[in-house]
């Protein structure tokens, strides 16, 4: 009877534990939907307009790299198109997809850290991320910076939660597929691959696992790109595609010289407590490696060290890559922030864990830290809205609010369906105008690298004869194009500090 009771308790505990793991994901999503600030009146980043217009063009049947030029793999645009088809083509709907990815990111991170350092350390990582203003802003911004990290962490979670691995294990190929999708969302996901290879190599039959995993990543990557962007395999477009995907991302340092790795560290993620905790974790792991007293999934019983090489290797790869890149944009910060927070959480786990309680004072100190951390976690529903108000104020000061008068002018002068050539595609998306596929994506990097030019605007206007032309981003276009537009029969009907709108007079 007693044996049966013990067995029943074990079964119930297993079911309960698994239930908790899966309940956390929708809980994170619901909490983010409720707590994230409302940025519906803002264009958080100009890349948001590019993302929504790409999804719209893909929905209309245009193909990537042959008809639509872009500087990333198009998998994110394909996912966004499917999301829009399900829930409607609106900016806030697209941002909701990002919130879902952020919930996945937090869920994966919590489970990965909990496995090594306990629940309190895991939720501390969530606390540190959600209280970071940049992370909070990007959690509601329609960009790729967080989705690719979420998919990469899901790839790692598939490996770690699967138990013993064999070459034919389903988890190996699920992990490979997730990492391939992460790479197709943003190429920076390749910086997570070395950490994953070390993770696999440390297991029994590690060499075979590494080869099987890499084969799976390559197969999914080639298959998906062939399905959604076959022009990538066109030899005639090979040189141009390489320029778009790789070469123009690295610009001369004379252009925007302040956008460097050191600037990003100083302005965006140089938070002293997180750095100190992360450095402590690195030093402890280094000492543990030298002593060779750890195993891959255990904690050093003498020193209480949660050991995890993945965030450390990932962080080092990112630092090396960004050191040689220019410009280093602000939205690269999550690639540094997430592994730093991960390492900091491991230090928290080492400090507040059950191990190494020497004396009454030590025990009281650890208990006090636990109480403080739980209090901060419970205060998140109050602290996040307060942080959101600060972000709203910053967006207003930065002039990121959408121009409602401009939208009204577009709708008044644009016949249905209206057509537009613009350097700010979020406005035609919201107003329901169409843009030419060959001129949908415009960026400062493309202008600087020679992939685009002012002549491209004029060619698009001469070819498509759009009803409206909107110049709202680049001052050089405002300086050089008005006279050309006037010669082509356009007159300016709206002007503000940042936007000039032109309409074509009837023939």
UniProtKB/TrEMBL annotation:
Keywords: Cell membrane, Glycosyltransferase, Membrane, Transferase, Transmembrane, Transmembrane helix. The chain crosses the membrane at residues 20-37, 72-89, 96-113, 142-159, 171-197, 209-229, 269-286, 307-326, 332-352, 364-384. This is Uncharacterized protein. It is a multi-pass membrane protein. GO terms for cellular component: plasma membrane. Coiled coil: none annotated. The keyword Transferase applies. GO terms for biological process: lipopolysaccharide biosynthetic process. GO terms for molecular function: pentosyltransferase activity.
